[in-house]
Each structure stands twice: as structure tokens, then as C-alpha cells.
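User: what does the whole thing look like in 3D?
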Amino acid sequence: MSLDKDTVRKVATLARIKVPDADLDNMAKELSGVLGWIEQLNEVDVTGVEPMTSVAKMKLTMRADDVTDGGDAETVTQNAPEGAHGFFVVPKVVE
Amino acid sequence: MAALTHMTIAEARAALKAKKISSAELTSAHLKAMEETRGLNAFVTETPERAKADAARADAVLAKGEGGSLEGIPLGIKDLFCTEGILTTAGSHILDGFKPPYESTVSAKLWQAGAVMLGKLNMDEFAMGSSNITSHHGPVKNPWRKKGGNAELVPGGSSGGSAAAVAARAVMGATATDTGGSIRQPAAFTGTVGIKPTYGRCSRWGIVAFASSLDQAGPIARTVLDSAIMLQAMSGYDPKDSTSANLPVPNFEAAVERGVKGLKIGIPKEYRLDGAPKEIIDLWEKGIAWLKDAGATTVEISLPHTKYALPVYYVIAPAEASSNLARYDGVRFGLRVPGKTLDEMYENTRAAGFGAEVKRRVLIGTYVLSAGYYDAYYLRAQRVRSLILRDFTEAYRQVDAILTPATPSAAFAIGEKSDDPVAMYLNDVFTVTANLAGLPGISVPGGLNADGLPLGLQVIGRAFDEETVFAVGRALEKAANFTAMPEGLR
Amino acid sequence: MSNLIKGETGEWEVVIGLEIHAQVVSNAKLFSGAATAFGAEPNTQVSFVDAGFPGMLPVINRFCVEQAIKTGLGIEGKVNETSVFDRKNYFYADLPQGYQISQYQQPIVSGGTVQLDMKDGSTRKIGVTRLHLEQDAGKSLHDQHPSQSYIDLNRSGVALMEIVSEPEMRSAEEAGAYIKKLRSILRYLGTCDGNMEEGSLRCDCNVSVRKPGAAFGTRTETKNVNSVRYVMQAIEYEARRQIEVIEGGGEIKQETRLFDPNKGTTRPMRSKEHAHDYRYFPDPDLLPLELDPKWIADLKNGLPELPDARKARYVADYKLTPYDAGVLVAEQETAQFYETVAKGRDPKLAANWVTTELFGALNRTGKAIQDSPVTARALGGLIDLISDGTISGRIAKEVFEAMVETGKEAAAIVEEKGLRQVSDTGAIEKAIDEVMAKNQDKVAEYRAGKDKLLGFFVGQTMKATGGKANPAMLNDLLKKKLAG
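Assistant: Here's the predicted 3D structure for the full assembly of 1069 residues, as C-alpha cells:
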């Protein structure tokens, strides 16, 4: 599978990583190389094989409906690059 | 005081108990070693004040004849573990200035056991790498050099800082994590012992996630016994991690000297790779002979899907990573690079904050999960993963553990293999299967190659049977009698 | 009844499917131990899990699962013994993890039915495709600053049930009835408080139009509409807009739209312009959700009587009309109130009093039935006074008003104001005699055949007794006396 520049651009937008146009070719080449190598998986006969869903052969444990966390806005927001009045702050979003 | 940094954890612990040494002395010897080995770039953050305070507290506890299993023992913590109030970067620019307001379960358990914190250890960015060259804080250097050579070598990765610091005697042991080989490969490259326990044995809570279904914490130390002592303290059920195993933790220390008499050891024929260096095959043969001498029998087994393990890994790990790393968006912590719009801010922040390898994997992961490709890549990889697990399940019907080389080569020079991602990925060819199947694996130094560089042997066990892994590892350690040290330390 | 809309090119049918996001009633969030209360200060109900901090992991709240199971059973869906949590990946300011934990291919509930009670008393069944559990996102405030949006994560991670209907509704009225009935079921079950103003129940409306019998048209999705009235408005507007576009030679774009409650219109949502690719995959931080069949069975046995069953019982046992029964069961509190009033009394009379006088009083005073100034027991007492002839129905209305004002018992007011009905033949006869004596001319006219004057005599006599005369007795006696 070889990726073209447009696909790389699309994937980079999905992943919200800015890739300068000048780097697209090289990135496409690198990713194509990795994906090409991955494609050897097509050799494997997986008929009737269930995909692995969890490594841990365990039952999901559930917690009780108790309030045990939160209540500390200051600590939650103290690492934020920008904040105001107890909120996180981002560039204005137009819905 | 040099002798203090050459003690094993077990020896130091006995000496502390017997009050022959104090944790303050032991700690200051390691702080000095840490300073002297700064050239290795093994530490991201040194915490000498914390270390001294920890040591003083430990000495007070020891004076009362009390103390946990690691009371007063100075350790290093991989920078992937969140440490309360102490910079935690996961080797990435994007976590600039991040001081977690919480402590990871595994590191908290070590502090409960009385350990002393020396600092945070360098690593490949977000644990993605096999040579520790992807860290935002610069590459870590292996304390080992080729005989007569001067080229700087990689310590392996991603836990390169952990392995280098342990090998350089700057820490007595270190925490590490292993997603595709990140404990065992650097241990093999540095002549140290590293164990990745069964998936679910150690809590993942508070460890910066790379690939959730593969990540496991474990220790790197200098002996099998030391790694057992550390893993004992690190293990256990954590209700905060839904994938943590609610099982009792066996007595690992007691298992170390159990011996291998009567054990059946599987030798997987598919691990005899075409073109594998002779020194690797030779060491493997030696390992087989050592175990036979110790009373085990060896059986050739087949793990037919081995060759697909790496490609499976390079679908699943990037897929999970692409999602796990979405939270690094410049809003709540870490780096923010401004933008006119929200999306622009995201794109600028993530472009500047992530290094090349992380970007590559996030893009691969995004691609393999995207509409139209999910079935062909992700779902197929998870199916092949089922087959890999099935291979092991079949094998464990006839054997108790599996012996393989730990890596396909010894440590290589910094800069080598860095232009071809796939060539770099092949470093994990022997280790990655244990992650995909969730099995415990240990790397134990088996000897030196012709260049005087350490090589490791790997033992893979059944799920939740770390005890056998330790016993077999110890048998190899005994037989190998690996006493070599990096040149500067001799 | 035809639901078709007339356009220039003929009649159109509107096709509606609703996705309801119902906030689960619980103390703590779906995957963290932070509180869920409404209206807290920003970011005060946020754990590091909810804020997507490094190394944080989800652990599921058992009660939220229980609530989803109960809801699934309540809408007669199939509760799946195995379901899977997936990650829905997208970037947004109020989505801290960069993904929402939801259920995609294997939801906790498949199928279900909601029965609509229409105004004309008819019913109609609407299919539910699925119900799944997911995390809510945080809240973005766009109007606090000229160039910035503010983010509050208090709601981030709160458990939601997304309930998806089949595209089986054909009018705004049906859509309104669907939401009302679903909300009623959720409230009966106690799994969602149904409070649309606070956002505990939000609705995404999928709307398309087609010529009757034609294939489905392209649909638009209008997001987060937060009242029944708005939902109906949004659908009406969207249907007409789509018809206009198509009739004008245009095409409907499949898009996400936003409802403007001030204008009653919808517009495309700018932040959703990018084509989305959510890259769903099973969340590796969680294991499949496996439910013990015994747990499901126990919950099923413990379900309360739900609105449809209660309505059927009212019709069968109380002989109420389906419409009245539907009104009385819509809210559990009303039904409970009604049953207390009706117990041991004439159920139809009780229904009348609750749906007319009581509802009227509640409307006027702006009170909920739980805070009714007249308790169910007190209203029962009033009805008893009517039934045993102590007061007439007419006087009863006066007494009721006094009860609303003073909160006193009916009997006390009757005594206090001397409103007891006069059933003493002598007293009534005396009053009749007086009226007849004063109006001898009219008596003569009556006797000459002007029957219509009976009403005049009834009124005069009733007036003379202060309205307290037993009406039946008065009628009888008056007729006898007038007959001479």
C-alpha cells in the first residue's frame, strides 16, 4: 500500500498534527514503507479466527456509585497553559 | 565508598538491616555516582533533596528494626511514571513542565516499601523506540563500549535511561515499562536483568499510556534476585486499573532459587531467524546446555505465527497510541503553541510537541483505524494476535517455559539504523510476542560477544507464572556467571 | 389523520428518527468517582480521569450499568449479556481525552418499543433501535470572552444513555409524543430525571422528507435540542426547509445543524463541517461488559408498574377514557395522587376532580403536584362530602377554592361557612312558598302552560336558600307545589 500526499494530509488533519507541505512526500514514503511491511499479514489465513479483544482473561470489575473524587478545581486546572475564572481557556470556537 | 554502588539490592538490604551501612550513606554514594555518570544522559530529573529526605526517613525506620522490603534502597523511576509534584515528561516536549498532582500506583508501592527516589530516568519519547534516540531530552548513552572502540552505543529502548543507570551503578534498580520489548531489550544491551511481568500483574494507573493492551511495568536490576525483590513490591491488584489482575502475588523471592530440575523448556524453531548473527545463536545454544546441566529438559517447539508478531504489533500499538496521545492537545497541561483557531492550536501544539517517531506512529495508527482500513489492518491484526496467543497456549501444553535470545544483536552505535524505521523495529523481534500474548518474560545477561558487549537470553513463561521465569532466569544467571562490567566501572 | 405536508409539487411525508441523550441518575460519573450534581462551580466536579490526565484509567460505575439495564427492560428491549465499550475518536475543546468512551458495535441494549399516546386517544408503537452507555462531554462557553471559549469539565464523564429510535415518526406531534412518553418511562424507572432545561435530556432530530411511498430522502441531524416544543419547531422548520430546497431544484446535504430557539430556525453547524472519521475501536483500558443473567432477571422483577400498564389498568378497572388515563399516568406523582383520591371512591368523579379542578389550581399557583395546596387525602374528603349529600357539586367547587387558599379541610370550611346542603323538606318548602307568594303572576303563567319558567323558580329558590338547597329535592318539591 503506498500512500499519496493527499492521504497523508488527510490523516494528519484527523490526528491534528501540522505537516508542512514540503514534508508530505517524505512522510508518505516513510509511512508507505511501514504499511507495505505490515501487509505481510495478508498472508495469514484468519478464517474463523476471532479478533483478540482483551489480553487479560478477567471479568470487568465495577465500582460502587460513591463520590470519591473531584472537588478540587484548583489542582485540576493548575497545569493548564491558560485559564480564567476556574475554566480552561481555548481560542474561540464558533459552533 | 565505591563498594556501596556495587552492592546488589539484596546485599544492601541485608547490610541496612544489620546496620552495617545506613541508607544515607548508600544514597549519597548513588547521588555521587549519578553526578559522575551525567555524561550518559540517563536522568531527565535528579531529585537529590528528595533522596536525602527519603534516606533519613528510611534510616529512622530501620533504626527501630522495622522497614519494608526496599527500606532505604535508592532507585530510579522511568519518566513514564507519574510522580506527584515531580516533573514527568515521558521523554516528550509536549509534556513540558507537567507536574502530576498524583503518584502512579507502582511508584507509590515502591515508596510504601521504603525505597529512596533518586530521580526520573530518560526514555524514548512516549516509550516509542528501541535505542533511546527519540527522547526530547537527547539520547541516552550505553555505559558499555566495544572493546577497543570509542563509538557511543545506544542502551536500547525505550527504558534506556533505566538500563543505563542500573548498568552504570548510578541506581540499584529502576522501574521500566515494556510495550514491545522496552524492558528486556535495553536490559540485554546493558548486561542487566529486566522482567516484564504478565499483563495485569502491575497496575498501569499513573503510567503515561503508550499502547494500553501491551504496556506493562517491570523492574530493571543487576541480578535476578534483585528484579524479583523489586517486582514483588511493584505488583498487585489495583481497583483503579480495570485490566489489573485480581490475583494474589506469589512470593517471587522464594521462587528464584527453586531450580529447574524436571522443568521442560521449549526451544521455538521459528526464532532461528535467517541471517541471525552466529554469536546470538551460539549464546542460545549455551543457554540450552546450561539449563540441561541444571536438570531441565529441552523440547523443540513451534510458534508458527512468530514472523507476524512485529507487523501485528506495528498495527495495534500505533492504533492505541494514536488514541491515547489525543489528550496532548495543549489545553489542560503541557505545551501549548498558539493558533488562531482551536484546530490550529491543536495542530501547532502537536506538531511542535511530538518528535518524528511519535508523529509517524500516531499517523500510522490514525490511518489503520480510519474508515475503510479498520477491517484490513486493525481487525486483521487482532485476529493474527489471537493466533499468536494460540501458538503459546499450544506450546504450554508441553513445556513450562520458553528460552530464546533476547535481541537479534548487541548494542549498536548511536545513529545506526535510524534512517529506516522498519530496520529499527526489528530490534524487538524476539520480545514482542510476549507483549502480544500478555506473557511474562525476563532478559538475563548470558555473556559478551566478540566485541566485548553483553548479550541477553530471554525466558518466557505462562501467564501469571513469573515464579518459573525467575527460577529459569536464575539458573541461567548462575551458569553464565556474568561478572563483566562497563569499562569505566571496572 | 394525515400527516402529509403540502408543497408546490404535491404532498410530502416527513420522516423522523430521534436520538435521545438521557443523563443517568447517579451520584458519581460513569468511569470516575467525581460528583454529577447540576450547577456546581466550574471544574469542581472533575477527577483527573474526567480531565484526561496522563496515566488515568476508567473504572465503571455499577449503578450506571444497572440504570441502563432497567431502562432497557422498561422499553422492552433486549439486554445484551455481553457488550463492549469503544472509543469514538475526535478532537474538541470539551472532550479532554480526545475520545469519548461509548458503545458502537455491541450496545448494552438492542431493540425496544415506545408507545405513543396521541391526542385523539389512539396509540402508535415506535421502534427503538438500541440503547447504549457513553460518557458526556464537558461544556464550552462561547459568550464569556470576545476571542476565547471557556471550558468547564463538570459534565465530562457523566453517564448518558443514548436511545436511538427507528425512523418511524411521521410528524412533529408524534416526535413530541415520543419524547414525552420516553421521559415518562425514564422518570418512572428513576433512571433519568428528564429535566430538559438542565440538559439531562437532549434530543438530536434526524429529519428527511419524501413523496409518500418513495425511498427515504437525505436526512439532516439537528443537534442538542432541549425542549419538546423546540423539537417540534425544529422538525417543522426542517421539513419545510427541505421541501423548499427540493422543490426549488436543490439537493439536501447530509449535515449537522443547530436549532436557534429565538428564531425557531435551524442552520448548519460550522464546527462540524469537517467530514468526521471517528475511528471507533474497543477501548483497551476496559474489558467487555459481561452481565450476570440473574442480575438482569432480578432487575426485571423489581421494575415498577410503567405508564402503559398503569394506563391499561385505569381503563380496565376505573373505566376511565384512554385519554384521561393517559393524562393521569404521565407523571408518577400524579398517578399516585389520583390513586389515593380514587381509593374507595367513585374513580371517574375522582379523575374529573384531579384533571380539571386540581390541575387548574396547580396551573394557577404554578405548583407541582407534590406541593399541591390540597392534598390527595383532603381532596378525597371533599369528594366524600359530595357523595354523601353534605354539599352539592356546585358548592364543592367553592369549597375547593377555599381549600386551595387556606389549606383547610373541606369539612371545616363547610361548617365554618355554613355551606351544608339543606335537605330539610320543611325549610325548602318554606322558601318555595315565599318565592311563589312574591311571584304570583309568574305562577299563573306557569300554570297556564309556560313550563320554561321552572328554571326561574329553581334559581329564585336556590338563591333564597343561599345555594345550599339539595337540588334534586328542590326540583321535586317545586314541581309539586307549582302543579298546585
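In plain terms: Residues 318 and 347 of chain C are 6 Å apart (CA to CA). Chain C has a mean pLDDT of 93.
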